Amino acid sequence: MFEGAAYQISKRASEAYDGLQKSSRHCASAIKVYGDRLSSQGLTKESAYSAALALLLLSTIITYFIRRRNLSKNATRPSTPTTPALEKATSGARYQGREWGKWVPSDFRTPKPEPYPDWSVEHTKPLPYRPFRYGPKYNVTMGLRTIKHQDWIELDNHYPRYHADKARRIKERGHKCCRTHPEAYPAAIELLEELVEYLPKRYPTMFKRTAVGIDNLWSGESFDITQRSLPEDPMQICARLVQDDLAIMIERPDSQYYLLAGAVLLAGFWRLEDKYGMVMSEIHTSGDVPQFKEKLEKGMMNFFRRLKPEEMVARNNYFMQVDDDLAWSWSIGSEDSKDVSWSTAEKNRAIEHHYFRSERQSLRRLPKSGGIVFTIRTYFLPITEIVKEDYVPGRLASAVRSWGDDVSKYKGKERYGEVLLEYLDKKHQEQLDRGLDMSREDETRAYPF
User: Fold this and answer.
1) DSSP H or E run through 228
2) Which of 106, 184, 209, 388 is the most exposed place for a label (fewest CB within 10 A)?
3) What are the tens digits of pLDDT across the range 227-277?
4) Checking phi first, is residue 33 left (phi over 0); if not, alpha (psi -120 to 50) or beta?
5) What pTM was computed for the model?
6) b/e string for 235-258 if b means 16 or more Cβ within 10 A?
7) What is the DSSP letter of 242?
8) Between vectors from CA 162 to CA 311 and to CA 217, what angle results, nearest 5°?
């Protein structure tokens, strides 16, 4: 891949240089004629050629910038997503003309989404997120990218499994997995209202808007959201509608954001009961997120404080798992254990037990309450399936090898690394042996796919 990319860059640079040289030669010829005319009009030869030289220099500079602009337009899309400027901002509530913890309701209304093209609960496959990059360096970043409001919630033909798993989890552990603090109740209601408006428009074959709420045409469920009080936690109702886990962060007068509402049913490696009520920084430090203090905390706080209802962003991450449970990875310990960690996982299990777990998270601010909503959609596939895709085994192997000691510990590499890398290398070589052209990867895949 690197060789191919280098070749393309070199080729384009050579083309630009050749074009520049050619343009310069044409300019030089024209200027010589022009210089001869000036000389014939009484100017000295030196003055004529000085003017010609200045004109040549000017034309060369103009040609260079025109060609540079054209090359930029045609350049391959970078694999690293652009981070919105708001992440780097330093102002927050003060800039928005309000006090910390006091949100001024916005008149913004979420744009009406277009129906998802040809969507079907039977046939629409999950989007193939593969958010890992070649080494040798693993960069710890927020990795945000701007998305359209119509792309807020992603549903696919795995919906029946997720719906069933959530229903089972709500019945067994709802009091632990779904909670709403009184302070966040208005935001939870607003989130429910947003979903009730959005889903029937985006997925009209799946949902129907009713006078009092929403019907799930596939499951037969009907939800009346006008009741007060609601028959169950509003976050729990939200969870029944979508495949995502959901969380709401609320800003308090100390300028910090607190996790005060959530429906976290399929998280795999963390529990809402451990994080509920925590300030954002503590959520990450208590989970030993690598380099959070050094590289993430400041940018994340700036992002939260500046996020507007008109904006929506997404990010992706990925993990390995050595069991097949979407809801809770039992290999790291019982969900009811006080302490869970990778140290309890069986080392070097057969590759058939290795799963690729990827999250697509979206973040937006609710216009009325000001709460910040996380949607966390998990994609869960056997490693033996994703290696069938061109370029994936080689790129994933390179990514895993790029993890530093802190990231490796966080992701549990010591428990599965040997088996996984041996398998990925083998599958990568098989792809090369059948003639896979590594120089064309950027033409066929772009981050985060």
Assistant:
1) none
2) 388
3) 989 999 999 999 999 999 999 999 999 999 999 999 999 999 999 999 999
4) alpha
5) 0.79
6) bbbbbbbbbbbbbbbbbeeeebbb
7) S
8) 85
Asked if 249 and 260 touch (Cβ cutoff 8 Å), the reply is yes
Nearest to 398 by CA among 420, 381, 416: 420
- Could you read off the pLDDT of 98-123 as tens digits, one per residue? 889 999 999 999 999 999 999 999 99
| Confidence band of 285 (pLDDT split at 50, 70, 90) | confident
Which helix (H) or strand (E) is 346 found in, with range? Answer: none
Q: Which tokens is 40 given?
A: 């014939």
Q: Which residues lie closer than 8 Å to 353 by C-beta, 6 or more apart?
A: 322, 323, 324
* In the block, residue with structure tokens 């998802």: 116
Among 63-77, 304-318, 406-420, the minimum mean pLDDT is found in: 63-77
State whether residue 385 is helix, strand or coil: helix
Give the whole-angstrom CA distance, residue 51 versus residue 204: 70
Query: Given CA atoms 387, 137, 131, 245 in this order, what sign does their dihedral have?
Result: positive
Q: What angle do CA 302, 305, 309 make, to 5 degrees?
A: 125
**Nearest Cα to Cα of residue 156 among 410, 378, 330, 350:** 378
- DSSP alpha helix (H) spans, 321-402: 383-386, 392-402
| Sheet strands side by side (includes 213-216) | 207-209, 213-216, 222-224
d(CA 34, CA 50): 12
The string of pLDDT tens digits covering residues 385-439 is 999 999 999 999 999 999 999 999 999 999 999 999 999 999 999 999 999 999 9
Q: Is 22 exposed, middle or buried (0-12, 13-18, 19+ CB in 10 A)?
A: exposed
**Which tokens in the block code for residue 433?**
């042996």
- Can you give 282-342 as a three-state secondary structure string? HHHHHCCCCCHHHHHHHHHHHHHHHCCCCCEEEEEEEEEECCCCCCECHHHCCCCCCCCCH
Give 207's strand partners.
216
